[in-house]
Amino acid sequence: MLEHLELFFKSIFIDNMVFAVFLGMCSYLAVSKKVATAVGLGAAVIFVLGVTVPLNWLLDQYILQEGALVWLGPEYADYDLSFLSFIMFIATIATMVQLVEIVVEKFSPALYNSLGIFLPLIAVNCAILGGSLFMQAREIPSLALAFNYGISSGIGWFLAILAIAAIREKIRYSNVPAPLRGLGITFIITGLMGIGFQSFGGMLTGGDEGADSPVPETAVRDIEVKEESEVPASEAEAEKKKEEVVISYNDALNK
Amino acid sequence: MALLTKKDANLIIDPLADNNPITIQVLGICSALAITAELKASVVMAISVIFVMGVGNVVISLMRNIIPSKIRIIVQLVVIAALVIVVDQVLKAFAYELSKTLAVFVGLIITNCIIMGRFEAFALGNGPWRSFLDGIGNALGYGVILIIVGFFRELLGSGTLFGYPVLGDPITKTGLYSIGYENNGFMILPPAALIVVGILIWVQRSRNTALIEEN
């Protein structure tokens, strides 16, 4: 249970997809002009990551790893197909995205209308392939942890795009130097947010695990609860609070 | 340039500055930021992307009339993935240390949106030669930004270029360090890449005001 909790917070805050490893930046920059669309894309990313990471974990365990084919018979024990992982992973992702699109269109037209345009975009979102590749590189040991990793990385990405969309909606009324408008200022704000997220780095690694970890974890949980409770709030309110939360990350850490 | 007509030459020159894939088209940001802490990694990444873009654009352009449009994304991804596997295996064979630094980011060339973007926007509608030039041009534009960012981050962050100390030795205090200069450790951290690219965009748009966005 503890390892699940640890992986969950680690993937959301410390190894945040956007701020620590820069995955999914293209759609992060392109679709973050409005909070509503950002929420749609973020939800779709959580969903697709939650499906594809466990699937690719199974592929990796039973087909691609060195000696993984041993279940076919002892004569297959020497095969190492790991060089094929890129093509297998991306094929899984592309197929899953198409499949999800068809299923959602059939059974829930309302959800399809809100997610629809984003789904094809997701196949080429590097956060999705990155999720699978990091899962492989970090040798995540079990299917349940792989599922956890997919979902929590998705949540981390969701938080990031929600925060930047809220800030961009506000910044429209600010007097930004003309050459920085649009793309430039978004880059710099993301950089500043990234510095904030860097401070989570000591959360799970610093000091003795037993003595230190409970305290920061509860602090994070408070922020987490706060954020989850405000997502359903009305849009204008949500974005206002969102900015406060972004500031309070640093406050919470300084205390 | 006898081989190239003026129109063809523009395919290569345009993406280097005024239609740069990173600063103007906003494509391929992820890898541009993640691996630019060292100049060497940036150069290798740029070369890998030039190879994948050049060859991939030609292959897609040759197949453009037989790909059913409904499954074109999967076909494109498979073509890119096959090329990236070649790059990855070559790196592992000839530059093993470097392939460890680049780690999953070689794999992420597959989802580099520059490649998909140029396939969709150019290779599907143009012949192989023009597609090849477009691919090389865009990959060069991407490479230029990568190398500029890598140059500043490595120089200011660790005082080296390609791993060679150029500002003196920080431990024995020679060169610049003898007068109190310190490396800026912040430049090696991931957020610095974003800020460096932000400043590049700023500089580029103040020089060419036609590129300024509406608020």
Please tally the β strands of chain A and state the result.
0
Which oligomeric state applies? heterodimer
Secondary-structure element order of chain B, as H and E? HHHHHHHHEEH
Biggest beta sheet summary of chain B: 2 strands, antiparallel
Ranges of chain A where pLDDT stays below 50 over 5 or more residues in a row are 207-255
Amount of beta strand of chain B: under 5%
Helical proportion of chain B, percent range: 55-70%
Structural class of chain B: mainly alpha
The low-confidence runs of chain B, each spanning 5 or more residues with pLDDT under 50, are: none
The tally of helices of chain A reads 13
The number of domains of chain B: 1
The main pleated sheet of chain A reads as: none
- Helix/strand class of chain A: mainly alpha
SSE blueprint and pairings:
The complex is a heterodimer of chains A (255) and B (215).
Chain A: H1 2-14, H2 25-30, H3 35-64, H4 85-107, H5 109-115, H6 118-123, H7 126-137, H8 143-171, H9 183-198, H10 202-205, H11 209-212, H12 214-230, H13 235-254
Chain B: H1 6-13, H2 29-34, H3 39-63, H4 72-94, H5 96-102, H6 104-107, H7 113-121, H8 128-158, E1 160-161, E2 164-165, H9 190-207
Antiparallel strand pairs in B: 1-2
Helix pairs in contact in B: 1-8, 3-4, 3-8, 4-5, 8-9
Describe the protein in words.
The complex is a heterodimer of chains A (255) and B (215). Chain A is built from 13 helices and no strands. Chain A has helices at residues 2-14, 25-30, 35-64, 85-107, 109-115, 118-123, 126-137, 143-171, 183-198, 202-205, 209-212, 214-230, 235-254. The longest helix of chain A has 30 residues, at 35-64. Chain A starts with a helix and ends with a helix. The model of chain A is unreliable at 207-255 (pLDDT under 50). Chain B has one domain (26-206). Chain B is globular. The N and C termini of chain B lie far apart (41 Å). In chain B, strands 1-2 form a two-stranded antiparallel ribbon. Chain B is an all-alpha fold and 215 residues long. Helices cover 61% and strands 2% of the residues of chain B. Chains A and B meet through helix 2, helix 4, helix 7 and helix 9 of A and helix 2, helix 4 and helix 9 of B.
